[in-house]
Amino acid sequence: MKRKSHIITIAGAGSARVPALLGNLIEYKDRFPVSKIIMYDIDNERMGQMEAYDRLVLKCYYPEAEIVFTTDAETAYSKTDFIFCQMRVGKGEMRSNDEKIPLKYGLVGQETCGPGGFSYGMRSLQGMKEMVEKVRSYSKETWILNYTNPAAIVALGLDRMFPEDKRILNLCDQPYSLLKSYAKILEVDQEELVPKYFGLNHFGWFTDLKDKAGNDLFEKLRTYLRDHDFQPFNAEQRAKSWLDTYVRVNKYMKFFDEYIPTTYMQYYMFADEIVEESDPEYTRADEAKDGREKEVFETCKSAEGKTTMEGIEMLTNSVFGKLMVEVAESIAYDLNNPFVVMVKNNGLITNFPAEAIVEVDGTIGKDGAKGNYVGEIKPFYKGLMEGQYAYELLTVEAFMEKSYTKALQALTLNRTVISPVKAKMVLDDLMSVSKDFWVLEK
Ligand code: G6P
Ligand code: MN
């Protein structure tokens, strides 16, 4: 039976990740058919750079889907079933500041971890708050699938600001990407893998892995990671910094090999070494701009004035895009497929605050995400998570109350900072470049 089709809005359609997302929608058109795609961005020029490609690829491979480009929120949000949202408030320029300013003080320069993540979090909370208010002024039914980073802070903040809203789902593709990489190492299909995972977003661990028949694969994977470099499944398409990031998982496991950490754990464990290796003049923001973004814009440019896709590369290579579409599919047809999800703890981790947003293995269906029961976690993980959760919470409260003191407390608690002296210097510096986005009161 043919599945019912939906209207979707891509909010942040000026993102260089979007053309590949369209490729994924094409790949999945039988599984998650769409009748209309509304491309929305407040930056028309950026979105416009990809418009010719976006139109052409859909005309060629998805003619049944109507496509609309708009900078008008009402057109984007008033009649739509799913919003796929990936906004980057302050764009690449602010990402660059988030990464470079901490490095001036010998602190990790990363977009979602440490002071950079704090600063980005403050911008995203404002952008997402306005977005959710706008969307809900039109409809309570529309699903907001949100990929906006730093997802841990955004998820917690949205839960605080919109506690009754059951149709916002915050997503991260890193666990999904890691599972793809495990599947490649273990030479099994990703669909065969049944993981156990707990933590906070960008701060968690795989604790078990089986196949569907119940055979243990975790031991095999841990053994492999003891003597082989960990590589992403798509290593050949990854920039050097990402390859280094994966290999540092091996390093973590030389110290603690009980569980397998997310790649982001390294910023909290090996901060000094990472700072040492960073180039304060050229960070991931530059690499992403000179790499992925440039390639995507060039491909899109090559579509201008064309009527067929002949000689034009079709972009499909996106873990994020696949995840978004699979999640929408699982909600739309109530499939309860397994995903690693961000949900309110509410007793899943029995010795962790009920109101925290945790990341655990679970399922997604018509009522959103459900986490699987974890039980009690051990002191090492609990200790790490408590500190990180307090940092996230204080960041959200600093945003909601415009509190400088809470911001300073947040940064001092962050394992990449620790020193209140450095926390203050980096906070003041970040604040001075962020005036257009956030202000704190002393
Ligand atoms: C992973 C993370 C995302 C993050 C992305 C950054 O996929 O899960 O949260 O946005 O990496 O990738 P980039 O190539 O922009 O550095
Ligand atoms: Mn992520």
How would you describe this protein?
The chain is built from 16 helices and 12 strands. With 442 residues, it is an alpha/beta fold. β2, α2 and β3 form a beta-alpha-beta unit. The chain is globular and about 55 Å long. Bound molecules: 6-O-phosphono-alpha-D-glucopyranose and manganese (II) ion. The site of manganese (II) ion has 4 residues, from loops. Keywords: Cobalt, Glycosidase, Hydrolase, Iron, Manganese, Metal-binding, NAD, Nickel. One of its GO terms (molecular function) is oxidoreductase activity, acting on the CH-OH group of donors, NAD or NADP as acceptor. It comes from Fusobacterium ulcerans 12-1B. This is Glycosyl hydrolase family 4 C-terminal domain-containing protein.
